[in-house]
Amino acid sequence: MSNEIKTGEELLRVEHLCQYFGPLKAVDDVSFTIRKGEVFGLVGESGCGKTTTGRTIIKLYDATSGNVYFKGQRIVAGTRAYRAEIARAKAEAKQKLAALDKNDPASAAERQKIVEECCRIVDEQREQIRRAKVDHFHSDKLYAKAQKDEIDREYLPKIEAATDPEEKSRLQAEYKNKRRIASRTKLITQIQMIFQDPIASLDPRMTVREIISEGLRIQGVKDKNYIDEKVYDMLETVGLVREHAGRYPHEFSGGQRQRIGVARSIVMDPELIIADEPISALDVSIRAQVINLLNDLREKRGLTILFIAHDLSVVKYFSDRIGVMYYGNLVELADSDELFAYPLHPYTRSLLSAIPLPDPHTEKNRKRIVYDKMRDSDFSHDKPQLREVRPNHFVLCSEAEFARYKETIPRD
Amino acid sequence: MADLTNKTKKLSVRDLKISFRTQSGKVQAVRNISFDLYKGETLAIVGESGSGKSVTSRAIMGILAGNAIVEGGEILYEGKDLMKISESEFHEIRGDKIAMVFQDPLSSLNPIMRIGRQLTEAMLLKNRASRNESRRDLNRLFDSILTATVAAAPEETRQQVKAEFSAKIARFKKFTYKQIQLEKSYRSALDNAKAAVKEIVDLRYALANKIPGRTSEDLHEVLSVAAHTFDYFVVMDEAQALHDALSLARIAGRAYLRDRSADRDPAALIAALDNISGILTRAIEKEEPNLFGLGYYLTFVDPQIPDLPVPELNALTHQKLDDEFMLDFIAQARSGVEYAAAAAQEARKTALARISERTPFFADPQSDAAAMKAATRELADFVRAGINPVSLSKDSASYTFEGTVISAIETYKSAIGKNEAEQKRFEKQTEKRQKLVDAGKTPTWEVAPADYLDLDDLREQIVHQLTAMAEHLERQITRYGEKDYQALTVDMIDYFKAKAAASVDKLTKAAAKNYAIDLMGSVGIPDPRRRYRQYPFEFSGGMRQRIVIAIALTANPDILICDEPTTALDVTIQAQILELINRLKAERDLSIIFITHDLGVVANMADRIAVMYAGKIVEYGTAEDVFYSPAHPYTWALLSSVPDLDTNGRLESIPGTPPNMIYPPKGDAFAPRNKYAMKIDFEEQPPMFRISDTHYAATWLLHPNAPKLDPPAIITERIARMKQNGDKRKEGGADDEQ
């Protein structure tokens, strides 16, 4: 499945993303990229930060530190790292100053140099913080401005050139309408989310039509016929029928509700969908329906999907690349076949050993590997880093482990 | 695979049929399902939501919703039909014998109660209830035997007999309670002795090998436990020796601990410990004293225990008890037992005669309901008189006679009213239609035919209750001659003893806490002593589910029903919980009903699997049968809708949704979603076809005339792969499984 779709250029880049809730490090220094058209699976047990990662990317939380680039533009930027840098520089300068003799006139120049160096770093980092804030809070405005500029470039010459007054007024109206919509367009709407619980994520007092078209209306689309057509189109895409548009969520079964959630997420023509455990709350027989639907959408619309789940056999089936998370860290990142063929990190091994399989003989002989961070990893000497053990296969490990992993796997 | 043929059946469900009354009609949730559960096996019930699997489990627990109608069938547990027993009888089964673990651990725990209280609450309540009940039973039986004995005596000596016998009962009570006290201290002293011997082994090893550690605490612990074995003659004849040994050990221990040098020698301490261990081991192996007799001796003969070896002591106390009290007591009680039985026999004969006399009156269609009720009450008095008050087995048929007959009469009476109403409706509609016809119009509606209830049948029901009672009485009357009164009296005294013990067997909070902490440890909760005081929100999902399992195990049930216990948990935790359930099953010889919608989960758990769809079992077999040779298209669909690690092709999803069970389909319920459905599937329900001794499936595909069909490729390929893996494993032996 994974080889049929060509994956293109980089769509989303997550750099050193951290999300802390007070002392709790829900996501700690996570980096990965998602290429256009691929399905990136994020797995781990509950509480490991995979959902928080998804929510931080879509700006439901304000990131503590790190950056997220979407289509080359920075949409999420945290400032903690810059502040830490300022604090570090100040402390260092203080230490250096204390080491010098205060009354020694000879060291005056030296001191001056230290203070200047410190001020330079502080200014530099403050500038970074300012830019991060602009990018984080005004990325949509910047995007809208770029869109408007493009429309300006397209229409203004045309309007200038138009000779027929009727043609001119038509163009002018079109230009105004497009500009209005563009001014409300947000870059973040290009990323949409499918939630875990299809019951809780749909407003029980809204009809399916209202639920699906809400995004369009917020964006400023007023043409009722256009909205209706779009809603019907979406319903048919996800395997429902037009008549369903007038109904309320409670009138649907679990699988159908999740389809409505999918329809809502694709109505804005997003490029990236964050699917947060979309099948965990569904019956087994319906899971297959939803997975097949997502697969179809991906083929037809070239969607890119960040698939968050804890069910490894489904993730394996559905994803091109997989990232394994453990307590806020990304511990292993590889192509899905590669990951399942050569799992390296002990936590990945323990996850794989826990997958239930429909095979009594295997199951009765199964040996579950238990991961114990204190026992299995020794990070007392050097801080672990993501290192590339094989091409495109990264593992969070220390230098010693890195050498050991290199030995254990066959080289191409 | 366990051989199930020689295993005992724990539970068997026969033709169970349950519906729910709803606004829009009657939903048929469970339609004629039957299965057996054997001792020590896991039966998995697999199906989609709404297939009736949870309803089945709730019926077994007796916790169906209020709008449920049990339309038929039986659930047999220990010879009782759980669908028919009274709520008070169910109290003794629900939770005690059959326990349940629910799906969502958060909602099955009380958020504002500490875990410890939730674990011990049921234990303490049950204990208090059983104490009260035992006390009531005991007093009731004492009263009835007293009355019977007094009545058995000749007229003139009755006053005297009454005084005498009630004094005897008082004595009996007194020394029985003494015996219970003795029993308790004896048991705890014995337990302490065993614990001390065990700990001495550990400590001795640590000392001999100079393992550094908590020597001083351990030594203190051992000595204090050993000191608690003095209670009641566990070490009676060697009490002085033990006392000396303990003193020696204390001195040696102090010397050893005070010596800080590197080559300190533990030999003296080890010798002292060995000495203690030897004395205690001998005490443990000694014959158990006859505590019942001793209780009597200490209460009425001599408050000091005579200094004799146990066998002689037993002989002495036994003799004393028999000579001075027991034989006399039994003889007198026996006269009461005989008298009560004879009186009951006479009363039964009268009752039988009265019932036969009145039966024609009940059978007569002219009899009025009110008159019948009055007659029933009169008969019931006779029947009640035939209940033997000193019998140990409950004569529930006689107790419930009045209630059952009166309810049958009520049903009959209301049926008369309903028939009259129906008659009126029918006449009115016919008249209306006739009017229209007379006016020259053609009405668009037909008159619904009158639907009368069968009065004869209902009357027959009433008479049936009477004849059943008559048969019951006859059986009792013929059995009268076969009774051995001596044995009956001895049984009664044993019953007194047991009830007396139960009525003072108080479970203290401390004991309940210790038991709960043990239980928490055995379900794998680390540091149970600290966690005992925490609230549910302080636990993770997996830990909460462990707590729920521990609560279910507090009463030591023999059947555990797990209703989707892992659906709310993620993969690693799920694997842990499944392992835990498997381990507990092996340790406690539990029978488990495991309900789930995920076939992958049950492969490692289940001995047998029942696949349910739309309230029916569609396939039933061992785990191997169902996974390696599935026969029903629904099982195929379930298996092929889960991807495994090697699945690459498109998943086979099941189209559509389960049928609306207000209007269950005529044929096979799965037919509309089944791409292999044949014409007959839409017309007639398939019976259970037998594939092998253990494997059954309800699909027309197994009919000899059906076309031969193979399961979908995705399954056949997977099975082939699984077999290959299995062979590989056999060849490779212990090669690494990933």
Please characterize this protein's 3D structure.
The complex is a heterodimer of chains A (412) and B (738). By secondary structure, chain A is of the alpha/beta class. Chain A has a single domain (10-85, 129-383), classed as Rossmann fold (3-Layer(aba) Sandwich), CATH 3.40.50. Helices cover 48% and strands 19% of the residues of chain A. Chain A has 14 helices and twelve strands. In chain A, the strands form two sheets. In chain A, strands 6-7-8-3-9-10-12-11 form an eight-stranded mixed beta sheet, sandwiched between helices. In chain A, helix 5 runs parallel beside helix 7. The longest helix of chain A is centred in the N-terminal third of the chain and has 54 residues, at 108-161. Chain A is flat. In chain A, 38% of the residues are buried. Chain B is α/β, with parallel strands linked by helices and 738 residues long. Chain B has a domain at 186-285: Up-down Bundle (Four Helix Bundle (Hemerythrin (Met), subunit A)), CATH 1.20.120. Chain B contains 23 helices and twelve strands. Chain B has helices at residues 53-61, 87-91, 115-152, 158-208, 215-227, 239-258, 267-285, 291-301, 310-363, 369-385, 396-399, 401-438, 455-479, 485-504, 509-522, 528-531, 541-553, 571-588, 599-602, 623-628, 633-640, 679-683, 713-732; strands at 9-22, 25-38, 42-46, 68-77, 80-81, 98-101, 559-563, 591-596, 608-613, 616-622, 689-690, 696-697. An eight-stranded mixed beta sheet of chain B has the order 6-7-8-3-9-10-12-11, sandwiched between helices. In chain B, a hairpin with a 2-residue loop joins strand 1 (9-22) and strand 2 (25-38). In chain B, helix 4 packs antiparallel against helix 5, helix 8 packs across helix 9 (310-363) and helix 9 (310-363) runs antiparallel to helix 13 (455-479). The longest helix of chain B has 54 residues, at 310-363. Chain B is flat. At the A-B interface, helix 8, helix 9, helix 11 and helix 12 of A face helix 18, helix 19, helix 20, helix 21 and helix 23 of B.
